């Protein structure tokens, strides 16, 4: 009895410690992509976010007209330096200083994170050598403006920075060896500056690519209704009821193997398309996936490897974007149609 009591007190202390690390129990934001020619004015977008209770959002650039609309909104922003800006940010400290002065400083009160580039190591691989120097130059400029403790610098990664041959079970996760020369300095930077590792995580894409080897309820976080779909990670002694957790912990394992298991993790994108032609894309499936992720995050539990560490997640995306390229489903990730009506109900 006494032993049980002290164990639970200890557990409470450990939970409190980890939740302190995670800056709260869990938080949900939304990615405001603007690759559409029929989207509402920025001011209306801010009101839409407020009306739906979002406290944070991500944009894919530092467009002043957009940043202007968010001032005083109470919504914390993650902004991005675009891949096109990396050449100058990496090679010229003065250009980085100016970029921060013009693009960040006037809106500093609303900005929480600057993501340098988008999926550079995989989607824009030839720019990989520019990534770390850009992060350093931007951070030095933030230091000069005394903003480095309130605005953190990171960069977003796609799931294919992981080694595709060792992504299962999650405890086998490791980064693709050919990317380590770029990844390791970045991880050192994130650790030193107490910034999070940012990952874009799409169970939908893994499900599509698995040709039936992954069951839909497992991908949609619906395994409670299909208990035979629990995955046991024997090496780690952990149980996975959904692919979202499994993908996150594959990243966590990869970080641990390089000695960076203590980095916070932010899911900068996750979502499920409500249409677009494949059988898994439907309003019903999108609604299930997104609401199940929201419930998971708001429930305050983390992943099996980090059960007490609250999740920080951005849902992709705010709107269906008719100018996104790629397969048809790419234009159907939105929570809202461009006329601001809901694609499906959210429980937030
Ligand atoms: C690692 O990345 C390279 C370059 O993108 C790719 O060709 C290779 O297939 C990847 N290897 C694994 C095991 O994922």
UniProtKB/TrEMBL annotation:
Annotated GO biological process: carbohydrate metabolic process
Record Pfam families: Glyco_hydro_17
InterPro entries the record matches: GH, Glyco_hydro_17, Glyco_hydro_17_plant
Alphabetized UniProt keyword annotations: Glycosidase, Hydrolase, Signal
PROSITE patterns, sorted: GLYCOSYL_HYDROL_F17
Signal peptide span: 1-16
GO molecular function: hydrolase activity, hydrolyzing O-glycosyl compounds
Keyword flag Oxidoreductase: no
Gene3D superfamilies for this protein: Glycosidases
Family: Belongs to the glycosyl hydrolase 17 family.
Record protein name field: Glucan endo-1,3-beta-D-glucosidase
Organism: Adiantum capillus-veneris (Maidenhair fern)
